[in-house]
Amino acid sequence: MDLDTAKQELEEFIPHVRSISDSSVRKMAGRDLVRFKQFKKQGIAVKFGRFSQKENNQIQKNVEEFLSITGIDSAEKLLFTSRYPEDKETINRLKSEHLFCEKLSEGIPRPWRLIYYRARKMFDPNNYKGRYTTEEKEKLKKYHALHGNDWKKISEMMSRSNLSVAMKYSEIKSAINYGPWSKEETQKLMHAVEEVIRKRIEMEDANSLLSSEKSHRDLLIDREKLYQKLPWTEIEAKVGTRYWRQCKQKWTTILTNKMTKGQQLYRGTKGLQAKINLIKRLYEMKVEDANEVNWEELSNTIGDVPRAYVQAKFYKLKVSCVPFWQKKTFSEIIDYLFEEKLPELEEKL
């Protein structure tokens, strides 16, 4: 299949495909297109965002079955083959013979690359190793000075996952300000967000608008583009004095203030009513996993707010009200809030 045809066919499932590199598009055409079409026949849409518990379980099952078929003795050897140079040739041959790509992605309606990254995160014994010590942070700075952004190499030297060292370096590379945001920082953040959104929209419109038309039109943005899937590490670099998570939280606050015209929607009796509505709506949805919740739809339980605001309020609610919430399933958390917390909030109201 030629590149233009591949982009055209993939666009139905991945609307932003034209902003993806040509080499990645070619891989997706080979690994994903047939699967996406099969899922479409079953009425299943391609998914992005956080993986659900059900999807994690499916990845676990797929990996275990592949290990059983091939005799490879650990998930680490399967997913981090380069760590085992003496077995590398044999493992790669077994992966090829037994169709590793197809087996790993079985039953999961997502791009293969995302499934692979998720599997590596789940099965990396170097992941989830707790806080970095001062000594580790200094080592990380030193290794980055020597090897740049070669996170694979640095992760091996530090016995931490690629993702962990990359994110930690992003956090410590410059003097991060943890105090209140200054006016200058807020302006930088707003300009940075505008810049990345403008760039994204211009790329999406490149095929449908003449450049002369584009340069003279006002930028009209779907509201979702203001807070969904923004490149926070890129925005962090533009702001310069804040960690990416701080940028994301501050942007949510700015948007919420603009959308609500500065009203306090989560204080006093309004706040109590918002919590009551949120618990009731979540209970009525009867979903088993947080990733099945349509947070966009839920936002009107509080008011005209971004979905990240609602998610943050729900997180605070479960942490402050549900004992041992980490050990409970999503549906158990909702049941507890409905049965134990709701009557208390209604009485208070």
UniProtKB/TrEMBL annotation:
Domain HTH myb-type: 124-161
Assigned GO CC terms: nucleolus
GO molecular-function terms, A-Z: chromatin binding
Organism for this UniProt entry: Ciconia maguari
Residue stretches making up the Myb-like domain: 124-172, 173-255
GO biological process: termination of RNA polymerase I transcription
Protein name in UniProt: TTF1 factor
PROSITE patterns: HTH_MYB, MYB_LIKE
CDD domains: SANT
